[in-house]
Design brief:
Chain B: It comes from Chitinophaga parva. The structure holds 2 protein chains of 2 kinds. In chain A, about 35% of the residues lie in helices and about 15% in strands. Chain B has a 5-stranded mixed β-sheet, with helices on one face. Chain B starts with 15 loop residues before the first helix and ends with a helix. At the A-B interface, helix 1, strand 1, strand 2, helix 3 and helix 4 of A face helix 1, strand 1, strand 2, strand 5 and helix 7 of B.
Chain lengths: ~200, ~220
């Protein structure tokens, strides 16, 4: 044992003549127990999880209701966001049902998920613009975001854009199937930027 | 000059205090954590600012990996038992008791219903090697994903009168969107509108509307 007996005064000087039983130390070596303790700690640290996964609510509209809802949205309050491949985001104001709107070269714009100068700034800008508008009752208008995910986009983009809705407190948004027109625009923009 | 006698010190260190700390930490970890659930595939979930916790029970979880394979899992052994018995009768799978038991105690499954018998006869390593782990088909033709949702919901409803089942989707960052869309469409077809997407927690970016709203809800100092 690593323990050395220092508590007793030593057995050198024989003060008493009687038989003397050897005094053992009362201290127990704790080292193996510490070893065991830390081994178990390591085990628990590696095999368990501390944080529980968080969830995001996704409430989907009914299919039939969706169409009506979409038609109700005014061109002026809508912002359409398209998710492209390679984490790219495209957006345009309005619903793009008007063919003349697309004639404007600045109509269809590309951006990123970056915190500064990305899609978030555009959402905030649009939200503020729309808040200035007044509806028939004289109440401020609410921005409606239409999300269209292309086939190249990933789940990360999808959650990312839903998260932007939560971050910017957009209460009205919908995920809609991408149209062929949108796909063409994405392709055109990609070709124009030369990143394909 | 008299020699100064240095008292001899023991080389042993008292480990009792260290032992105390070790076991204190051990107790903490045992109480504060829970075991990692076994996952069929590694999935790195995207992060969001949502702080809502994933419920402990009454969860139907669809795990989607980055190749788009879908795995089904549900909590509660009696419920799983009922689910597999229903599937067995409906599809005439001819599962024996052992295979059904494998399903009841096992984790996720991700295969065609027709391959289920072979699949359940194997252990986790064999499943990976066999190539049967192709995921539950999500296409709208067979709609096996829809079947799993339906049977799972039935099994849940049988076990507790109140249906408070939450449907969770746990997908990888790199999962292509069409796969997710297929799943969402399947849910839509089943008239299930409320879903949960499993995400990691992320800090709310400062200066945004959500950050301002959070400030307001905080008690004023």
């Amino acid at each position: 044992m690593a323990e050395m007996d220092t508590s007793s005064s030593g057995g050198k000087g024989k003060k008493h003549g009687g038989t003397k039983s050897k005094k053992h130390s009362t201290r127990v070596d704790m080292t193996p127990m510490v070893d065991l303790g830390f081994l178990l700690i390591t085990f628990f640290m590696l095999t368990t999880t501390m944080s529980k996964p968080k969830t995001m609510d996704l409430i989907m509209p009914k299919d039939t209701k969706n169409e009506e809802e979409q038609n109700k949205v005014k061109e002026s309050t809508a912002l359409t966001i398209l998710l492209g491949g390679k984490d790219r985001v495209y957006y345009y104001e309005g619903l793009a049902q008007d063919p003349n709107a697309a004639a404007n070269p600045d109509f269809f714009k590309a951006t990123t998920f970056a915190a500064k100068g990305g899609i978030r700034d555009e959402i905030i800008k649009k939200k503020e613009e729309v808040a200035k508008l007044r509806n028939a009752k004289g109440e401020p208008e609410d921005v409606v975001v239409i999300i269209k995910a292309s086939d190249e986009s990933t789940y990360k983009n999808f959650v990312g854009i839903l998260d932007e809705m939560a971050i910017n407190r957009i209460s009205r948004y919908a995920t809609v199937d991408i149209t062929d027109q949108d796909k063409t625009w994405i392709k055109q923009t990609e070709n124009a930027n030369g990143n394909k | 000059m008299p020699k100064v006698k240095m008292p001899r010190k023991s080389t042993a260190i008292d480990m009792t205090a260290m032992c105390d700390v070790a076991f204190l930490l051990l107790t903490f970890f045992m109480l504060a954590t829970k075991f990692k659930p076994d996952e069929p595939v590694t999935v790195i979930t995207p992060s969001s600012i949502n702080t809502q916790l994933l419920p402990d029970s009454d969860v139907m979880l669809f795990t989607v990996d980055k190749d788009g394979r879908v795995f089904f899992s549900m909590d509660g052994q009696p419920k799983r038992r009922k689910l597999i018995e229903d599937l067995n009768t409906q599809y005439h799978l001819g599962l024996d008791d052992k295979e059904m038991n494998n399903f009841a105690v096992g984790g996720s499954v991700g295969t065609d219903i027709k391959n289920l018998k072979a699949y359940l006869g194997m252990n986790a390593d064999q499943r990976k090697a066999s190539g049967l782990e192709k995921g539950i088909p999500t296409d709208s033709v067979n709609g096996e994903l829809g079947q799993w949702i339906e049977y799972g919901t039935t099994a849940q409803a049988g076990s507790s009168g109140l249906n408070k089942l939450s449907y969770c989707i746990k997908a990888d960052n790199q999962t292509p969107y069409p796969v997710i869309k297929d799943i969402l469409d399947t849910f839509k077809k089943k008239h299930i509108q409320k879903l949960n997407l499993v995400t990691n927690l992320e800090a709310i970016p400062p200066g945004t509307a959500a950050a301002l709203a959070q400030e307001e809800t905080k008690p004023a100092k």
